[in-house]
Amino acid sequence: MKNFFYICIVLSILSACQDMVINGTQGISNLDNWNKGDQGMAINRKWTFIIYMAADNDLESAAIADFNELEAVNYSGAPISILVLLDRHQGYDMTNGNWSDTRLFEVKSDPGGLTPTIISTRLDCPELGLSKDAEIELNTADPQVLSRLIEFAKRAYPAEHYALFIWGHGTGWRGGTNLYNLLPAPFKAVAIDDTHDQYMSLPAFGRAVAGKGLSFIGFDTCYAALLEVIYEIKNSASMFVGSEGPISSTGWDYYTLFTEFLKKPELSIMDLSDSIQYQFSTQYAGLSNATISIVSLPHVNDLFNKFNDFAGAVAEAIENDQARSIVLNQILHHVESYYFTSFPSDLYIDIYDLSKKIIGICESLNLDHDKQNAIITAIDMLDNALSAAIPSSWAMNGTEKKMGVHVIPLQGIAVPAASHELAYVRGSMYFDKSAFVENSGHWVPNSIPQSDSLLDKLFYWIYDSPEVNNE
């Protein structure tokens, strides 16, 4: 009997150690912090979701509504946890006690279903200095806030997969800022924080999520499925989902998203991506320019290279102002495009549609068959790269392979600005440019115009002054 007692103790210890190894915990006390569901039953967490609700702006009411959608879902027995960092504004929504600071919650199911009251559990977060009993205002435009939130989620809610949802305003390629990130940029921003009058630039966002072990990154924002954005985070997750154009301020339908996702037996990364695309296509079926794309991030580097080659081939074929006008006319008037209806606004065009329009005008650009064939070959390679990088996309207009890229700011409909902003100019002295701008040899403009850059050829090259071109 005594030996049997010792054997039981040893087996219990071995079992506990095995659980710690499998679940990635650091100790029994940490294990107790995460492996119990609402009913106190042990669970093996498949996913931890981190929803970064940067609502310290005019989207505050929409944030509360989306939070209520999250709480309307029945999570009973689901092997997931959802954390929401909600930063509110002082003046756009008076509900739920009208607090205006920054609070972290673990989402709980609302027994009443979809109600206007937040009932989820408020959390302490030492990494962010947050206390569930204190009012603390954080700057959600600060990339350190995002970085530390992810670190907290991984420590306190370890799981097989981690998903990050960026919620709020998004206006495109989000170029770099000055050294101290003090200048607001209403046209190129994510996580706009009105209280601090700041935003998070694309390079800063890239640094915040780099090396964090995320499986999935989703952008519930406008203008996210852009080559500039996904190239910045290509090594930071396995999958990305976002829209290349504008979406409604209501954002994603979180009730449908998680209800559909939790029906999937595997709860895989692709299951999550498909569930987001499904809810979006259902919610925005009546919006003519609505799109959403699932992007396989490991294929993005090849897509970037093939797009760069395509841009270079087209640039080499433009040898006079007539050819330049033909291409620019297609981009401004015929290629599928996205921009805000208030100006100035950035112009984004669909890469796949651009390639198809260039095929149609290829013979008009240059009589040299070698240069024509170079364009055709580059388009074939780009098409293959788009297919590999975008396993699925949906668009109300029925088009496919949805991925955008920035062209130039617009002063009006089809009226380009006089120049690009310096953050989008390769070789400029602007601080903290995106990786896309730094590495794109054939698309972005250069501080000294180059003959193999397409945007240089379209906006800055002087065809009747060859001596200037050779400087």
| Strand runs, count | 15
Strand order, largest beta sheet: 4-3-2-1-5-8-9-10-13
Distance between the termini: 93 Å
- How would you spell out the order of helices and strands? HHEHEEEHEEEHEHEHHEHHEEHHEEEHHH
Alpha plus pi helix count: 15
Q: By helix and strand content, what is the structural category? A: alpha/beta
How would you sum up this structure, described in words?
By secondary structure, the chain is α/β, with parallel strands linked by helices. The protein folds into two domains: 45-298, no CATH class; 302-469, no CATH class. The chain is 37% helix and 16% strand. The protein is built from 15 helices and 15 strands. It has helices at residues 2-23, 28-34, 60-71, 143-156, 202-209, 227-232, 254-261, 269-283, 300-317, 321-333, 351-365, 369-389, 435-439, 454-459, 466-469, and strands at residues 47-54, 80-87, 102-106, 121-122, 161-167, 190-193, 198-200, 216-220, 239-242, 291-296, 337-338, 345-350, 392-395, 404-412, 415-416. Strands 4-3-2-1-5-8-9-10-13 form a nine-stranded mixed beta sheet, with helices on both faces. Strands 11-12-14-15 form a four-stranded antiparallel beta sheet. The protein has a two-stranded antiparallel sheet with strand order 6-7. Strand 8 (216-220), helix 6 (227-232) and strand 9 form a beta-alpha-beta unit. The chain is elongated. The model is unreliable at 1-42, 177-186 and 466-471 (pLDDT under 50).
